[in-house]
Amino acid sequence: MIDSNTQDHIIALAKKAGDAIMVIYDKDFAVYDKSDSSPLTEADLAAHNIIVEGLEASSTFPILSEESASISWEERKTWDTYWLVDPLDGTKEFIKKNGEFTVNIALIHQGTPVFGVVYAPALKRTYWGSLESGAYMDDEQGTRSISAAKHKDGEAWKVVGSRSHQSPEIQALLAELGGEAELVAMGSSLKLCLVASGDAHLYPRLGPTSEWDTGAAHAVALAAGANVTVLDPNNPFDDAALALTYNQKDSVLNPYFLVSAE
Question: Which secondary structure element, helix H or strand E, spans residue 51, and what is its range?
Fold first, then answer.
């Protein structure tokens, strides 16, 4: 579906967008709202423009970005293959300056993410993956292949979650696991990548997300052998759970979902 040269180009594009974000992120700013003059909006739009220009110059596939979300369902439903982009995922992380924000670029084909790049510029960490070539991670330790790691009997469950208070639904899910559960905190789409890299077993999402928030990291998770399924809080470990899909409905909001190495 996507050759190695194209993959390299998209990775480089994500890094170029990340570099533009870092120019603004490294400034001593104190304006955190979503007004047109905020550093957050400035960084978001700078990354968006770089990515869209790069994709349009190298591909004929349409593009859906958080910054171009007004594209109608009547148009979107005709798309068989398209780029799904979040130029700056993790606005809270950007504001808090904890580094856990990302640039996300995914290729969606017939509802499934078949390739994705997740770049965390402040952490100097990149994840990418495709169904054909597997999943990879690059950081200060170098480049290496990654794969999801199933839970082993007797070890604590590593569950990705928020640093803030856990909801009753999450607490109930953890109780259903049995045994010890260790919370692994992380921001933005990096949550899905922790399961892809084997650093966590599960990521249950029982809160609102949009398709551009998850598409790229979803592709990495699938390439690493993880599953991403629709989550029913009343039956969280349903063996018949449906795969999370994209561009299959009018709304771009995701249902609740579970990322699992199981």
Answer: helix 39-58
